[in-house]
Design goal:
The protein is an all-alpha fold and about 250 residues long. It folds into two domains: about 1-90, no CATH class; about 95-250, no CATH class. The protein has nine helices and no strands. The protein is globular. It starts with a helix and ends in a 7-residue tail after the last helix. It binds zinc ion. Zinc ion (ZN) binds near residues 37, 39, 40, 64 and 65.
Length: about 250
């Protein structure tokens, strides 16, 4: 029963995150104003705004103008639901849900924005890193020096890699947003998480890049064309895996 409840809470949260994901990159406030269809601007009534259900019932189209609704909406809602279930499973009834719930929600939001716009807004990562450092002062399982080293070493490593890559390849590999995202993750999960997160995110990123290259047949005649994918979602996924798999993180 508690899993069902967690899933429903996660769905509702995902629905809210969709509003943030849509409005934040446009510089709009997300706490005011009704949701509207981006094409016909018809206000969306609550019964057409139910997570997952409305998308299925409307067959993915606006009720008024039949404009297709982005699949990102149901995907983020579903991801929110699944994330809430996984967090509840990892920290059942714990106060840590109040720490890692918002952390997971921020990572989900950042991933979706990075996939759509190739940006990781500072307005989430920078206060997030500061909050992580502050929380390490009160959380029993994470010491301040672990959080601080996580943020500093993570971002220094990425900065170094970005610098070398730019000298070598003459173009940007890692962006400033990725450097701030690893600082945010390092501050929340500590220095021990940083190598693990970097390793798994790089492995997943390389795997996804290869899969995309194969699917779009860019590997013909052995020619490697640059396959571009944003790195933020892979960093976020690796951080969540570390958190949820609990590798050495929380002594049980
Ligand atoms: Zn419409």
């Amino acid at each position: 029963m508690s899993y069902v409840l967690a899933f429903l809470v996660g769905l509702a949260l995902g629905s809210f995150l969709n509003v943030v994901i849509t409005r934040l990159p446009r510089g709009e406030v997300f706490w005011r104003g009704r949701s509207r269809c981006p094409r016909c601007h018809a206000p969306i009534p609550w019964q057409d705004n139910l997570p997952l259900i409305s998308f299925i019932r409307l067959k993915g189209r606006c009720r008024h103008c039949r404009e297709p609704i982005s699949r990102r909406y149901p995907l983020v809602e579903l991801a929110g639901g699944l994330l809430a279930v996984a967090l509840w499973r990892r920290f059942p009834g714990s106060y840590l849900l109040l720490v890692y719930g918002p952390f997971g929600a921020a990572l989900l939001t950042l991933s979706a924005i990075d996939l759509e716009h190739w940006i990781l807004p500072d307005v989430i990562t920078v206060p997030g890193a500061v909050l992580g450092l502050g929380l390490s002062l009160v959380l029993p399982h994470l010491r301040f020096w672990e959080a601080a080293l996580g943020a500093v070493v993570g971002s220094a490593l990425f900065y170094g890699v970005a610098w070398v890559y730019e000298k070598w390849a003459g173009k940007m590999g890692l962006g400033g947003g990725d450097i701030k995202l690893i600082a945010f993750i390092g501050a929340f999960l500590g220095i021990k998480a940083v190598p693990v997160v970097i390793f798994y995110s790089a492995a997943m990123g390389a795997g996804a890049g290869l899969a995309q290259a194969l699917m779009t047949r860019r590997l013909r005649k052995g020619q490697w064309r640059t396959v571009a994918l944003p790195y933020g979602p892979f960093l976020a996924a690796a951080a969540l895996l570390y958190l949820l798999a609990g590798i050495e993180f929380f002594p049980d």
